[in-house]
Amino acid sequence: MPMLHVERHGRILDEEARDIVSFLEECYDRLRPVGLDIVEIVLFENDRLWHSYMAAERRRAGVTSSDIDAAFIAAHDAWTGIPRISIPLDRRKALAQPVWEGALHHEAGHSILHGSLEYYVFPMPKALANVAHEFRTLTSHLTDILYLLTVAVKDLEVTDLLVSNGYVEDQAAYARFVMKPTEEDQYAWDLSSITAEARVLCLVGKLKDIAAATVLASRSQCPRVGLEEIEDSIRYLPREARTALLDTTTKILNDLGKDTFANIQSGAAVLVARLIGPIMRCPASHELS
Ligand SMILES: [Zn+2]
Known about the structure:
By secondary structure, this protein is of the alpha/beta class. Helices cover 60% and strands 8% of the residues. Helix 1 links the parallel strand 1 (3-9) and strand 2 (38-44).
């Protein structure tokens, strides 16, 4: 079991901090990670303190990928080389208990599978470099596409680990929360109809939202989330785009092995073959419902 080092920002009761620590300890105790010595747990009184802390940490580490998603409940990173879970405690009140627990387990899963710096800096997979060679307009978006793909692959791995160890109810609640479409999703898609590469980016960004749900839907022994629920969550997309998105996520999941780096390479090949290639070659087919 790793040592949990707790840091607090703002007014946080001792009891609240102890609750979080013992909740996470149960998870590490169940998953029995090998070679994980220490995890930093950084607690924040509120969202505002969390965002400003993370923004400063991002600058310090030279992280260029986009800021924390407003929908995130908590986050994991290893920018300093040490796995770190950051949690704003004021989010808790607004969430159903299983969603909150699912999110904490999710971040603990990241610390086990992706708890070092190398999981935050990935080399560009060949398949992505090749497709940008074919479609030059993709070149300036490659780093974003890779980032979004790596986040989705890592979420598939984490959910697979947690569900395999019996965290099913909370992961199903968390998966439903994450895939719930927002008004911004619809808006982003409407805006992205301008260019094929904007549509690619928009869809690659959705991979992560349906990743956890896809793992739960793929397991016959625990059908806690149905495929049709996932499809409903992306109903605002044209049928071709929905199918491409579901196909891509399912295929990446089916190909998953133990090695994250290999998973990202094979995930990139699937992404290019099933989603990026078809949209870039025939943009019109993804425009209509
Ligand atoms: Zn995640």
